[in-house]
Structure formats: C-alpha cells, structure tokens
C-alpha cells in the first residue's frame, strides 16, 4: 500500500497504468465505516488495482457547514485499509487540489439544485468538480460509490456521460447498522438520545415500503405519513421525496421504479437515506 | 485520412493510442483558411498522429449570434486537409455531442466573463465544455490553437490546469492576410467596402505598438488613440483592452508583457485581434 500525497506523482502513476489491468477507484473523505470498506472490498473484487482517495473536499461544503469539524483520522483509516488489497492511497492537500488562483467548476444543471442541492447550494458543483479532477489524475476504469449518496451517484453518472469520460460508476448498496441506521461518518455527531431519534429515516423508509406493498401509490399520502413518523421521533424534515431514479424528478403516483429519498435534521446533524420503494 | 462521425468510434480509437506516439489535435469549426492550415502543419511537425476535428459547436453561440449562418464547406475542408498528413478527421453531429438531456457545463470563472465574454455571455462556457468533451474523446497530448482567439487559449489553458488534464496547449501565431487583417472564417461576411474598414484592427495594433516603442505607457491614452483610429475607419469598438496575458486583467501602465486585445464591429460582423504591445 503506497501512500501518495503529491498530485504530480499520482498523475504520473495514473498516466502509466498497465493497459491490461482494470483500475478500481474508491473516492472518500476518510473516517471510514463499514460502508467505505465495503466499497474497497467491491473494488478488490472487480479490479486488478485498487486506489482509495482520502480527501475532505472543501469545495463541497457550504460556508456554514461542517468542513472544519468533519471527522478525520488518517492513522485509523490506513489501519482499516491494511485489511484489504489497496495498491495506492491518494491523499492530496487542499492547496494542491485548489491552488489560490483556482477558477474552474463543473455544473450538472437541474439535478444538482434539487433535494440535497436545494439545501446545500453549490454542494454538487464541488462534488462534480473534485471527482472530475480525481478521475483526470487517476484514470480509473471503475469508480465505486455508495448509494447512500444516491443523488451524488446520479449527478456523477450524468457528468461522466455528458463529458465523455470513460470511467464507469459502480453503485454499491447502503451499509446499515444492526438497527437499520445507514452508516455515515456524520453519525459520530449524534449523542445517545439523538442516535435513537436518527432511526426515523430508516423507519420512514420501511413504513413507505410497507404502504406501497399494501397498494398505496399517491406519493402525497406516503410523504405525509413519512413526515409524521419523522416528527414523532423528534427529527426535523429537510425533504422527503419520491422520485424517478435517473432524473430525480418527483412523481405523484409511485411505481416499481420509484425511490424514496429523505434528509432529516437530528439536532444539528443532517442525515440522508434512500431506498427503492419496492424494497 | 480517416473521416469519423461517430463519437463512440472516435473514443475507441482515442482509448487505444500507441503509448509511444504523440497525438496532436487541432480543434476547428471548419471553413478553413491559412490560419487553420498552419495549425495542422504545426501538429504534423510536433506529433506522430494528427487529428483534426470539424464541429460547429452550437453551445458557444449566443441565441442572437451566427450559428445558423456560420460558413460551412466540408468538401472543401477535406480537400485542403489532404495536403497534410492528417490521420483522423473527427466530425460528430450536434445530436451526438449534446443529446437532448445534456446538462453538464464547465465554467472558468472570472476570465470567461470579461472582454469577449462580456459581449458574448456563455460563449466560453460553451468553448470550455466542448473542448473538455473532445479531449476526453480523443486523449491528445498536444492541442494546437491559434492566438487570434487569445482569450480562448487563456481560458482553456486555465481549465486544463485546474482540472488536471494532461493535454498541453500549443499556442500558434496569428496568420494574417497580406495587408495585415487576421484570417478568420468570419471575414467572408465582409463586403469589399467593409473589407477595407476591417483593416482598422491591425492598424490600431500597429499604432499602439509604435506609441509603446515611443515610450508611451498610459493605457488610457493608448486606448483612446486606438479607438479614434477604429472610428476613423468606420468600425464600432466593442472593446479595446490592454491586459496582463495570463490573468487578462487590464493594466493602467503598460509593460513588455502587456497585450492589446480588441473586438470591433464592421457592419454586423464582429472581428477580433490581439498582439503583444512590444511587437
């Protein structure tokens, strides 16, 4: 496992991959949980060379968001990675990724400004930009991403297609705690009381799935029921949406393609989750 | 000379370049003049494989600009190219480059909204986006571009650096008619009277260079003199600017780095030109 901090060094390696080998890339902001590690395991399975990036990307955080307090523990991350076959860990500085005169941004219009994009203006612009930069540096064949950030996956798939990038995204299932809470680096912000409240996201998903199975199709009803459940747990709804998964457009009448997407504040912590309504 | 209209076919070729060969790329909108051909000649000189793209990019034209009337003559272009060693001509359809649900754009902030960008909102967004797409399809080592579009070269250099693209731009000298008019596909719009008026751009550059040589450094004076000359010829000034060539920021006191940039309307035709003030 080679740890590389220099963009230039990493790019030289990326320019000289053995053409016969499949390069698998797992972009992360570090502070690993089982979700991240499941992506690394999947990359190991599907590629000959695995690269993991650890970079807390400042450009995807809003001015009042948690960039400074976002949890970081490089030592622990590297120890966790040592259980896998990781060929390169790429962890550049912000100064290298965004020099002072940096001024180029990638915007995936429409699908970046709804859902999480409505609550976090500029977030997906930062995500799209950093991923395009990382891809240009690393030149991976496959990029492994968790479906917890479903909108992120959708935005990036669109970017890669629109910009004729050859890297393919491999979306991977959400990894959950035993009680159903989706794993997230931000779960560490929750105190024991909030940890219980945080279960409302998964419970709301399960309730909507049950109601869908019972034949309910009107999303306005499903949404109200989900919102009521979240409130009962003490969560504050940011959004609860039922969408077509490629365009992320809201649907009035759900079908087997429909996905429930939600973001909820538990105290100051904003958590997201999603699932196909069909289960 | 292979003519390729399919993005997919071109990308397959681009993904399989012989690693030992240098790929030279000349992006064009067709309707070749000696300026274009000088870029092809330079690509031949500096690369083992030369690719020329011919694509009138709709996204860099404003709604009231000349996209529909922009001159096109593929047959003549191909004949002109046959005098050079061109390995591939890539000429995709707009529908392939921008499918109906296309939504990804690249913005190089600041330097895209001044000078030509002020008169042509969105122009450089369209240029940056199409060039990034072409580069992702073709994967060239070198990209040959004329300095007539000096701001374009500056914007694209910045984009390539910011986004960690390995393609390097090779800026090439402006090719001029015998009387000094910079060659441009848009010169065809000029009637004989306007053709004479159009010389004001080059004359204004020469005058500024002479005045600089005489020791004049205040750009406000140089600018006024240049504007007077343009008016005398019957041109309408869009802008005349004296800039630092990397940032395109206007300077009050010129030095040996300063570049004069100008855009002038001759009738309805907007022409541009530029040169180092030092000559």
Structural class of chain A: alpha/beta
Show the largest interface.
A-B, 29 and 29 residues
The CATH class designation of the largest domain in chain A is Alpha Beta
How many independent structural domains of chain A? 2
What helical percentage do the residues of chain A reach? 25-40%
Cα end-to-end separation of chain A: 38 Å
Computed over alpha carbons, the radius of gyration of chain A is 19 Å
Largest sheet, spatial ordering of strands of chain A: 1-4-3-2-6-7
Ranges of chain A where pLDDT stays below 50 over 5 or more residues in a row are none
Number of helices of chain A: 10
The quaternary state of the protein chains shown equals homodimer
Q: Major beta sheet of chain A, specifics? A: 6 strands, parallel
Principal-axis shape of chain A equals globular
Overall number of strands of chain A: 10
Full CATH superfamily name of the largest domain in chain A:
HUPs
Binned strand content of chain A: 15-25%
User: What sequence of helices (H) and strands (E) makes up the elements of chain A?
Assistant: EHEHEHEHEHHEHEHHHEEE
Task: Report the CATH architecture of the largest domain in chain A.
Answer: 3-Layer(aba) Sandwich
- CATH fold description of the largest domain in chain A: Rossmann fold
Mean pLDDT of chain A: 97
Question: Which helices and strands appear, and what pairs or packs with what?
Answer:
2 copies of one chain form a homodimer.
Chain A (H helix, E strand, L loop, with lengths): L1 E3 L2 H8 L8 E6 L5 H13 L2 E6 L19 H8 L6 E3 L3 H4 L6 E5 L7 H4 L3 H16 L3 E5 L3 H13 L5 E5 L19 H6 L2 H14 L5 H15 L2 E8 L15 E8 L2 E8 L3
Parallel strand pairs in A: 1-4, 2-3, 2-6, 3-4, 6-7
Antiparallel strand pairs in A: 8-9, 9-10
């Amino acid at each position: 496992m080679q740890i590389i901090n220099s963009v230039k060094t990493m790019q030289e390696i990326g320019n000289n991959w053995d053409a016969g080998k499949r390069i698998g890339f797992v972009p992360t902001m570090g502070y690993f949980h089982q979700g991240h590690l499941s992506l690394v395991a999947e990359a190991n399975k599907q590629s000959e060379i695995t690269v993991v990036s650890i970079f807390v990307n400042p450009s995807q955080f809003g001015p009042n968001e948690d960039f400074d307090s976002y949890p970081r523990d490089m030592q622990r991350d590297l120890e966790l990675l040592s259980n896998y076959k990781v060929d390169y860990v790429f962890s550049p500085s912000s100064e290298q990724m965004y020099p002072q005169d940096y001024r180029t941004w990638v915007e995936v219009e429409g699908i970046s400004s709804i859902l999480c994009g409505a609550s976090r203006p500029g977030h997906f612009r930062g995500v799209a930009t950093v991923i395009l930069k990382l891809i240009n540096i690393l030149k991976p064949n496959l990029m492994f991403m968790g479906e917890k950030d479903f909108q992120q996956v959708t935005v990036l798939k669109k970017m890669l297609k629109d910009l004729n990038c050859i890297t393919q995204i491999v979306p991977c299932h959400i990894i959950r705690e035993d009680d159903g809470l989706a794993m997230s680096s931000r779960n560490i912000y929750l105190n024991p009381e909030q940890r219980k409240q945080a279960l409302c996201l998964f419970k709301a998903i399960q309730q909507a799935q049950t109601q869908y199975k019972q034949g309910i199709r009107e999303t306005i009803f499903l949404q109200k029921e989900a919102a009521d459940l979240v409130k009962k747990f003490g969560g504050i709804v940011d959004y609860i949406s039922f969408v077509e998964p490629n365009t992320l457009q809201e649907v009035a009448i759900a079908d087997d393609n429909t996905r429930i997407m939600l973001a909820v504040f538990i105290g100051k912590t904003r958590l997201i989750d999603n699932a196909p309504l069909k289960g």
